[in-house]
Amino acid sequence: MIDDWWVFQLKGGHRFSTDDLVCAWRAAIARPDAGRLLDLGSGIGSVGLYTLGLLRNDRATLTGIEAQEVSHRLAKRSVVRNGLADRVTMLHGDLRDSTALIGDAKFPLITGSPPYIPVGKGLLSPHPQRAACRIELRGSIVDYCATAAKHLEAGGRFSFVMAKGDPRIEEGMDAAGLAPVEILDVTFRAGSPPLICVVVCAHADEVTGPPERVALTIRDEARQMTEAYRNLRLSMGFSVDG
Q: CA-CA 20 to 30 A from 233: which of 23, 24, 84, 225?
């Protein structure tokens, strides 16, 4: 069960976050029946593993692609610790070279949590793992969309999380021939503007109307978890204290 799963992470390194949880949540809702999942830039494996755990298909498999050696090792450790070695394959390599890693394989569901900040536009962490998770050292959402489109089967869905309002979201989808079917706006405190969004997209020629708009608020005005976010965390086996 997902509430028994572990995700190993470095104490001073990159830690999985609300971004990862909401991306996995919407991905699993988009294609709950998916039998094969591809996670791009999988990092420590949190998005891919939690998406896998939320799927209705208990025989579904996950393929993850991660370029950083330290994150790749942590993800593989989590796979073994959770007894998922027969269902999960973690590949070490750059998602922009996905053909060399997985050939022309197609998937009904793809996830991704790309870094948000272009090189030179933000402070580069001295910790290399944290730096690559924040700064676009190995590609941006445009690259994620291009790779996802290449491996997304007909009728499939690609779920990714990004900074709200970044124009490259639309640019990346347009260039890759993708279009949104759902956009989740995430507000971290009631009364504040949404800071991130989860976009679920499909091949553009399969999309016939505007995307469904969904919203989630993490904490209310008193800084307490909202009921919606509490229920989300509970469904994934996380604490709702604090």
A: 84
Does pTM surpass 0.85? Answer: yes
Helix (H) or strand (E) holding 197: strand 196-203
Residues 201, 43, 84, 62, CA torsion sign: positive
Q: Are the CB atoms for 138 and 107 separated by under 8 Å?
A: no
- What domain range is 141 assigned to? 2-235
Domain of 211: which CATH number? 3.40.50.150
Q: pLDDT tens for residues 23-75?
A: 999 999 999 999 999 999 998 999 999 999 999 998 999 999 999 898 899 99
Q: For residue 241, tell me if it sits in a domain.
A: no
Look at residue 242 and tell me if it is in a domain: no
Per-position b or e across 110-138, b if 16+ CB within 10 A of its CB:
bbbbbbbbeeeeeeeeeebbbbbbebbeb
Q: Quick one: how far is CA 64 from the chain centroid?
A: 11
Domain count of the chain?
1
φ/ψ (deg, to 5) at 69: -60, -45
